[in-house]
Amino acid sequence: MTDGAGAPAVAVGAPVRLRVRAMAHGGEGIADAPDGRVVFVRGAIPGDTVEATLTKVKKRWARAETTAVVDPSPHRVDPTCPAAAAGAGCCDFSHIAADAQLGFKREVLLGQLGALSSRSGVLDRFDLDSVETVQLAPVTGWRTRVRLGVDSQGNAGMRRARSTEVVAGVPCTQPVPGLLDDIVGDGAGKFTPGAELVVAVDTEGSRHVVETQAAQRGRRVERVERVLEGPGELVEQVRGFDFVFPPTAFWQAHQKAPEAYSDVIAQWGAGEYTNLVGWDLYGGVGAFVPAMNEALGGGRVESVDYSSAATSRRQQVADACDVRVHHGDAAAVVGELERPGLVVLDPPRAGAGADVVRAIAQAAPERIIHVGCDPATFARDLAGFGEHGYAVKQMKLIDAFPNTHHFEVIAVLEPVKRDESSSQSQRVN
C-alpha cells in the first residue's frame, strides 16, 4: 500500500523500516518516515536500522514500536538489566553502551535548550560547548530507594513501560546490593495486591519497607499504610548533618547525588551578597541548606516545600544554621519571604512554571541556581528567566540515573546589566 507519491502509506499499524538518526527527549529514537514525517521510535537508538510498527500518526509526526533490529547501532549492547529486558520501564538505556549514554543525554539537553530557550536571550552570554558532563558512579547498584507495584497475586516488581502493569519476579540492576532481597526474585514474599511498595536503605544501612496506596501517574503518595520493616524513619547524611524523614518523603535516588549537587551549589553559589537570605524552593527535608549556608557565608535560608512528610520534622541542620521551613506551594509562599540574595530551586519534573519563575525574578536575587530533572521543563524555565532579564553563567549535566534516559542539569543564572539587556531585546525582536 502506497500514498499518491508512491511512498509506503503512513498509518497506524503499518510496518515500516527506519534508520534512526538521533535521540529524542524521553529516550526514543528519531527517524524519518518514507513520506518525510518525523517518527519517534521506541526501543531504537541512533545508528540502528529497525523494523517497526506505527502506533500513532499525526500530520507532521508519528510514533512507532521497534519489532526487530535489522542493523544494530555500534552503541547497542545486550540489555544489562533483566527487568528491562522483560519489558519493565526501569532501565530503558541498558541496551546502550555506558560510554555512549552520556553523549546521547548531552545531545538531548542541547536540543531542548535550542528549541525552548535560545530566543529568550538567556543563553546569549553562554557557550553551550562549555556544558560539563559528569556521570555519577556506580552505574549499576546505585539506587537507594525504589517504588514497586504489587500485582494481583501479591508479587512485587517494576512496572512495565508506560503502564501500571507489574513485571513481577525479575530483578532490576538499579537498586544497591541487597535492597530488594526477599522482595523481588527468588524467595520473595507476598504483599497486599494492588498496593505500592516503598523500599529504601539509609546512610546507617537500615532497610525500610512500607506499603502505600497505588499512586496516580505523576503523583506521589506519602501516607504509609503499613510498616513492614524498619523503624519507619530514615536517617540520611549530607555535609555532616543528619536528616530524618519517613520512607515516602522525597530523597535523591542515586547514593552519590545529594553530596554531588550540594558541592555544586556551595561552589557556584559562593559570593558576596547584598541580602544574606537564601530561598531553598522545593527544598524537601532541607538537604541543600548546609551548602546554601556555606555559599551565603551565613545568613538565613527560607526552605519551602509542599510535602508534609518532608517539612513536618525539625532537622539537625536547624541547630547550626538559621533556617525557616515553610509548608506550602512555592508560588503561594515566595511572596511572603524576604528578598533573597541567592535562590536555589529543585522542582519536580513538571518544572517550576511561569508563576514561580516570575515571582523569583520579581524578587531580584543576585544569583539563581536551577536544578532540573527534565530537560524540556528545565529549558522552558530558563527561557522564562531569560524573559525576566537573567542569563546563564554556568551549566552542568549530571548523569545521576545511569542506564535510563533521565539526568539532572544544574545552571547558574545572574541578572543581565541594563545595557546588555537592551541589546538582547533587540536581537530577540
Topology:
Elements: E1 15-19, E2 22-23, E3 29-32, E4 38-42, E5 49-57, E6 61-71, H1 82-85, H2 98-116, E7 132-135, E8 145-150, E9 156-159, E10 166-168, E11 196-201, E12 207-212, E13 226-229, E14 234-238, E15 241-245, H3 257-269, E16 277-281, H4 289-296, E17 300-305, H5 308-311, E18 322-327, H6 330-333, E19 342-345, H7 354-362, E20 367-372, H8 375-387, E21 390-399, E22 408-415, H9 418-428
Parallel strand pairs: 4-6, 7-21, 16-17, 16-19, 17-18, 19-20
Antiparallel strand pairs: 1-5, 2-3, 3-4, 5-6, 8-9, 8-11, 9-10, 11-12, 12-13, 14-15, 20-22, 21-22
Descriptive notes:
The protein is α/β, with parallel strands linked by helices and 429 residues long. The protein folds into 3 domains: 15-71, Nucleic acid-binding proteins (OB fold (Dihydrolipoamide Acetyltransferase, E2P)), CATH 2.40.50.140; 99-138 and 252-428, 3-Layer(aba) Sandwich (Rossmann fold); 145-234, no CATH class. Helix content is 20%, strand content 29%. The chain has helices spanning 82-85, 98-116, 257-269, 289-296, 308-311, 330-333, 354-362, 375-387, 418-428, and strands at 15-19, 22-23, 29-32, 38-42, 49-57, 61-71, 132-135, 145-150, 156-159, 166-168, 196-201, 207-212, 226-229, 234-238, 241-245, 277-281, 300-305, 322-327, 342-345, 367-372, 390-399, 408-415. The strands form 4 sheets. The protein has an 8-stranded mixed sheet with strand order 7-21-22-20-19-16-17-18, sandwiched between helices. Helix 3 packs parallel to helix 4 (289-296).
